Amino acid sequence: MTAPEEQTPLWIDAETTVAARPADHKMELRLWLRLLSCSRLIENDIRRHLNAEFDFSLPRFDILAQLDRADEGLVLGEVSKRLMVSAGNITSLVEGLVKSGHITRTTSSGDRRAQIIRLTDKGRREFRRMAKVHGDWIAKYFEQLSQKDIDKLMDLLASLKDSTRETILARQQS
Amino acid sequence: MTAPEEQTPLWIDAETTVAARPADHKMELRLWLRLLSCSRLIENDIRRHLNAEFDFSLPRFDILAQLDRADEGLVLGEVSKRLMVSAGNITSLVEGLVKSGHITRTTSSGDRRAQIIRLTDKGRREFRRMAKVHGDWIAKYFEQLSQKDIDKLMDLLASLKDSTRETILARQQS
DNA sequence: GGAAATTATTTCAAGTCTAAAGCGTTTTTC
DNA sequence: GAAAAACGCTTTAGACTTGAAATAATTTCC
User: Fold this and answer.
1) Cα B4 to chain center, whole Å?
2) Which of A1, A18, A58, B83 has the most CB within a 10 Å radius?
3) Contacts of B58 in chain A (CB under 8 A)
4) Please, which residues 79-118 of chain A have a Cβ atom closer than 8 Å to chain B?
């Protein structure tokens, strides 16, 4: 009895790896690791700069960013969903941002369970100041990519997001 | 005096947004947020499944994954670099993995500052068991993408990684 | 060869994060 | 309209994470 899928081939070339692909999903794994590399590389760098230049943490910045685009404020659950972090996590971050005067927090008049948070003037002012530089940092990461590359990447990541969401949803329903 | 870059245009079309692009880096920001979405979506799902099905944490799994490909073991600093997490973080994870019998830890004979970690038989066995399913999960996320899409994405992310690394390096040197 | 700089790791404090349990509030169901 | 289910948020325990300071070992530089 032989177990070919466990054997290391004597030589590896394009044909071998393509043939091996359906069995062990090597390509997809490499792609995922590469995506994760890019993500961590950029996220770590942003975090470090935000800390060094504005003494502000990335999670706190992320919450302000969500609020800057929402004039009516946002319910906590919505923030949690958009940032893809747990609800319990948001609670303490919001508490800190209220304490530091960047946001306000009100109980919704329609639903007394819901908490609505909004930027204060100070919060908006400080966020905008940071966001300006933040945008420059980010553009720099993409500097070597052409406009065409950027468009294509936008496109492919949109597909990936859809594909992933559907996969996760399908599994939850079964 | 007018401040045109602060005004909200009366109508927004392709031309407007293209014209606005160089100033505020809107496209790059959106691309970064989309990349981050994909990354978090997938990472969160993997973490949940690893916890639920194997009662194992993702950071612990990541360390075993690095070691599985390194027969001679790895120095802690190398693990830290590859996973892009701080050195202080690795210390306690390694301590836990030694305690649970998944890895061993030896002081390097050549450099008594360096700690070399290796998979134990148990560690390798359990990692392989998890890795099999882990590969299947990941392939599923990319299910809706064609082979061509996957290749193109690999390509573009390689460019992005290069571009980002260079940007970060250039800033550190100045 | 010895002082100074660098390197590998650990320790520590503070912050972030999750899952799960708990507490009111609202909605659904009969 | 009351019981049951669902919802929004908070609390808690425990794990992860970072940056900075500390320690020990090695390398560099005169």
Assistant:
1) 40
2) B83
3) none
4) 84
